[in-house]
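Mods, move this if it's the wrong board.
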Amino acid sequence: MEKDLFTALRERRSIYGISKESPISDQRIQEIIEETVKHTPSAFNNQTTRVVLLLGEQHNKLWDITAEVLKAKVSSEQFSSTQEKMNGFRNGYGTVLFFEDQSVVDIFMKQYPSYQEHFPIWSQQTNGMHQLVIWMALEAEGLGVNLQHYNPLIDERVKAEWKLPESWKLIAQMPFGKPSAAAGEKKFNPVQERIKVFK
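Not the wrong board. Structure tokens:
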């Protein structure tokens, strides 16, 4: 990875123009995901996040399934723009699926009853950390990335198609590929209004 941490963070953007090319090997993409899953922190070290990498026809299948599900949910007038969006994601090289294993969350809720209401929140937080680390790492390797949330609409179809455990709850979908279009302008609210420092 040639970029330093904050360069990768600054340059991490939602890239919707992506192609079926990758500047890095499938093995390198898998290494990024494995390192992220191994080293990203979680509450009580409960390691609840699960990740699925879809490449090639498996990636295409995800967005075909999503289009099928949405076609049954939206009007025919709206579906043309929805299909265009699905085609954009399908045009990518691959997709990372993020899950939380609710069976592990439940175990920790029972094991630590004083904190039980916090474990579902902490579970979402660790998933978000996994998402950001993988996003930054893929961006640093020259890939364009965006993040989608078609859950819970596609959850059952996804679990059935890839024979995933029932306890895995889908959190987000991350299509990626070689950028074919730049990100739009990003606006920032004043940092001074969002941070307080006390010395």
